[in-house]
Amino acid sequence: MERIEIIQGDITHLQVDAIVNAANTSLLGGGGVDGAIHRAAGPELLEECRKLHGCPAGEAKITAGYRLPACHVIHTVGPVYRNGKQGEPELLASCYQNSLRLAVENNLKTIAFPCISTGVYRYPQREAAAIAIHEISLFLKKNPAFEKVIIVCFSRDDYDIYFSLLSC
Ligand code: APR
What we know:
By secondary structure, the chain is α/β, with parallel strands linked by helices. It has one domain: 3-Layer(aba) Sandwich (Leucine Aminopeptidase, subunit E, domain 1). It is 39% helix and 19% strand. The chain is built from 5 helices and 6 strands; from the N terminus they run E-E-H-H-E-E-H-E-H-E-H. A 6-stranded mixed β-sheet has the order 1-6-5-2-4-3, with helices on both faces. Helix 3 packs parallel to helix 4 and helix 4 packs across helix 5. The mean pLDDT is 97. The site of adenosine-5-diphosphoribose (APR) has 26 residues, from strand 2 and helix 1.
């Protein structure tokens, strides 16, 4: 599946149609990749986010990218991991589904995802990666016109997990 690409790096550097932000329900910024994206995009991003009035977990909203090389930011809110039996897998899957749906609705062709929920929200990396790859593969089969989905791993161990899952 060459339309999925796994890289190790900083998502704020990617020149794609949209990068996905692992946000919180306020959409008013935070730490981790959320903090990095807001820092790189500049204050106009927060101004636009204020007008969105938040976002429930599992859903996604789109803004411009401002000073980022990416044209858009798709903000999605992942589940906080508790024990895997509180609907976390379904919510994480819907983050990918809703982000990709928004990309298609906005006629975008390339998108980059971070490893949603696997930082502050403590989702186990391997389980999260399996959900990400499953949802992205399903989406690409149904959307042959979509050009590329990049999964940006900040850490080497995330990269190794994705690489091993994609190789089998
Ligand atoms: N580029 C790509 N990935 C990054 C970057 C970056 N610049 N910075 C961090 N990451 C990775 C982390 O290493 C992790 O693998 O993003 C993944 C998601 O981790 P978090 O950013 O902590 O996001 P999440 O676990 O979804 O928690 C969301 O954290 O920052 C707050 O406001 C955010 O409340 C929300 C919560």
